[in-house]
Amino acid sequence: MAKELFAGQRKNKYRIVVSKEALSKKNLVPLLKEHNKVLIITDDGVPSKIVKKVTDICKRSGKVSKIILDRGEKAKSLKNFQKILNFLANNNFDRADLIIAVGGGVVGDISGYVASSYLRGIQFIQIPTTLLAQVDSSVGGKTAINIAAGKNLIGAFYNPKAVIVDTSVLDTLPNREFKAGLAEVIKYALIQDKSLFSLLKKYSQKILSMDPKIIEEIIFSSIQTKAKIVTKDEKENGIRAILNFGHTFGHAIEAQSKYKKILHGEAVAKGMKIASRISYLENLITAKEHQEIIELLQEFEFDLSLSQYKYRELKPYIFRDKKIKKGKLNLILLNQISDAIVTNSFEIKNLQKGLQD
Ligand SMILES: NC(=O)c1ccc[n+]([C@@H]2O[C@H](COP(=O)([O-])OP(=O)(O)OC[C@H]3O[C@@H](n4cnc5c(N)ncnc54)[C@H](O)[C@@H]3O)[C@@H](O)[C@H]2O)c1
Ligand SMILES: [Zn+2]
Fold this sequence. Notes:
This protein is an alpha/beta fold. The chain has two domains: 3-172, Rossmann fold (3-Layer(aba) Sandwich), CATH 3.40.50; 196-354, Dehydroquinate synthase-like - alpha domain (Dehydroquinate synthase-like, alpha domain, Up-down Bundle). It contains 14 helices and 13 strands.
């Protein structure tokens, strides 16, 4: 059974449909009605079967073009941004036309940013095909590209017209990518969703073996939490910060690894271990809760070792994070399991200790 939910406020509200067969004529065709031309943006790592399915459905409604980027983070470049804009202009796309992003967070981020800026905004649909994109990047309206000075430094808040989350597309996803995406699912459980936490604990083995029913359930719960938070705080002025739980440290670990050896989710799992430990050292969560969190992360087979990361080396990245406000570092900690808080009152010695293995 397809499940649906909504995110976004008023006229920027959009429907998110989640199911094993969400990518269907029934869900896509009504969204194409008022558009003449469609541009599908994807990358060469997305299975062609998925792209073909989208193309075939769109073809019935009008003219379809396709841009296939080279896979990888490097695709979120100014060069590709320009290339896509030129394509749109050269093919006379106007505001009544549509962009469809078919892929992971990389494709979704650059497609969304192109959509936000071409003719000051044309509509776009997200069809996320990685677990990370399904539970995180496709919902919330953050779009971005990278420049030499840093990741995601250029972007816009721009909501999609709709998000179609077809969980069956995950069948082809490499196991490592799938597991990395699970880190974000655990994040939602830890920051807000107690029943998701119980579900993850109870069904960890089924999830790891990709049981479709339970996968659909955890994806839906994750999106529900994300949608609730981003709808309350569309432009990240407040509560939305809790979505960065584990990320200040995760980003530092990623940056220190030069984004090569470690996937985002893998770094975030380590980051959540650090943030949970600081929460314990700050007397916010109990030893038992702390233990429960570590056990859950271990249950999902995350490598939680921190021995290769030294406080001294991570510190510049931690303090350069976007979470600095008025010279103070804001941390997202846990008051208890499924109750995250943002605080700048913590002991630096606990921050250091949190980073120890
Ligand atoms: N906008 C946001 O709110 C937000 C949130 C989190 C992350 N992000 C961004 O998302 C990006 C990471 O996204 P990602 O983890 O999805 O990586 P990704 O988009 O690079 O996808 C990972 C790899 O999987 C391949 N792939 C995609 N779907 C597949 C499928 N169904 N089967 C097999 N292979 C498939 C891709 O081709 C790619 O090689 C980063 O750039 C990050 O900054 C954005
Ligand atoms: Zn993340």
